[in-house]
Write a structure and sequence with these properties.
This protein has about 325 residues and is an alpha+beta fold. The chain has ten helices and 14 strands. Helix 7 crosses helix 10 (about 310-325) and helix 9 (about 295-305) runs antiparallel to helix 10 (about 310-325). The radius of gyration is 19 Å and the shape is globular. The protein starts with a helix and ends in an 8-residue tail after the last helix. Bound molecules: 2-oxoglutaric acid.
């Protein structure tokens, strides 16, 4: 974006999009300096903030991203023990996927910057300040250990489905969790992030920020043309953190929301929303998971059937486990 355009955008809208909530300490007692107020750079609406878990069912029905603010995650047993050191100790040997290089560090096309490495190696490169962003996709046993220390809110809890998969289909639970990146631990250096994309299964996603700050822009799929999606695939070409309005003029008509996630906050978004992230302060450490409500389950199964990593057995097992799970219902 040219400087003149940037100023015009900022002048007309920035005042609608300020963030003032912050939490002073990260998970595991990590010191954080997150006291300055954040400003939304462009024409984005602030992501809606809820103050209590009781507001979740109504928020899920809105089909828009939301943040459970303040110290929500601090009430989880994991808050006191989770840290990068802790995850390295618990999961250090597990192979993780990562990318290095300039922002957006993680681009969804297969690129030379992708590599696989033990989680401990990725953590160590991030600690050294290298521009590395990685994610460990957990298998069933790893995920179960992690989730013992989480209190995933009602409407986002996938435990009944995953437990059914493990009990009835054994290793298929691991295959499913790993190949669909279902439950993840993200670690990234300041200045890394993921390009604009939408997720390729019809799920909902939550992410709990443990240390560092992560900014997220999410754009309404009802106006998906305005983010310039690729014709076949899940990426979109706009960089919402520095939009080139000459190349992508229709982005001015987009309907996007923005938020700066602080340690202790949990964000939730529907997978249909295009989204882009940037780690903007300190080492960003987050845990995330997918969930399925009753009202999107049938759409989820269709997307699963069409997915490149799926097969008839996975489809049948998920159908069985979804049918036998008491999924939360929220109107869509
Ligand atoms: O947390 C991030 O940086 C990106 C996560 C994301 O885009 C995803 O899980 O689809």
């Amino acid at each position: 974006m040219t400087r003149a355009l940037a100023i015009a955008f900022a002048a007309c809208v920035a005042s609608t999009c300020s963030e003032s909530t912050f939490f002073a300490n990260g998970a595991g007692g990590a010191d954080q300096d997150v006291k300055d107020v954040q400003q939304c750079p462009y024409h984005y609406r602030p992501i809606r903030r809820l103050s209590a878990a009781s507001e979740i069912p109504a928020a899920l029905a809105e089909e828009e991203p939301f943040i459970l603010g303040g110290d929500f995650v601090a009430s989880w047993p994991g808050w006191k023990k989770w840290s990068l050191d802790y995850f390295v100790k618990e999961y250090g040997e597990s192979e993780s996927a990562a990318a290095d290089g300039e922002y957006p560090t993680i681009e969804l096309k297969m690129g030379a910057s992708y590599f696989k490495a033990p989680f401990s190696e990725i953590a160590s490169r991030v600690r050294k300040g290298e521009l590395v962003y990685g994610a460990l996709s957990l298998d069933y046993a790893e995920r179960s250990r992690l989730m013992e220390d989480a209190i995933v809110p009602p409407g986002m809890d996938d435990a009944p489905i995953m437990d059914c998969l493990k009990t009835k289909h054994g290793t298929m639970a691991d295959e499913f969790l790993k190949s669909f990146f279902w439950s993840q631990i993200f670690v990234g250096a300041e200045g890394t992030g993921m390009e604009m994309h939408k997720d390729n299964l019809r799920t909902e996603i939550w992410s709990a920020q443990l240390t560092g700050e992560k900014q997220l822009v999410a754009c309404n799929p009802r106006k998906s043309g305005t983010v310039y999606p690729e014709e076949y695939g899940d990426r979109a070409y706009v960089n919402a953190f520095d939009p080139d309005m000459k190349e992508f003029p229709n982005f001015a008509q987009s309907d996007c929301v923005w938020g700066a996630l602080q340690p202790g906050e949990l964000i939730h978004w529907p997978s249909t929303w295009y989204h882009q992230t940037k780690n903007t302060r300190g080492i960003s450490l987050a845990v995330s998971g997918m969930s399925i409500g009753r009202s999107i389950a049938s759409k989820f199964l269709v997307t699963l059937d069409n997915h490149i990593h799926s097969n008839d057995n996975i489809g049948a097992a998920l159908r069985e486990c979804i049918a036998s799970s008491d999924l939360p219902a929220y109107e869509k």
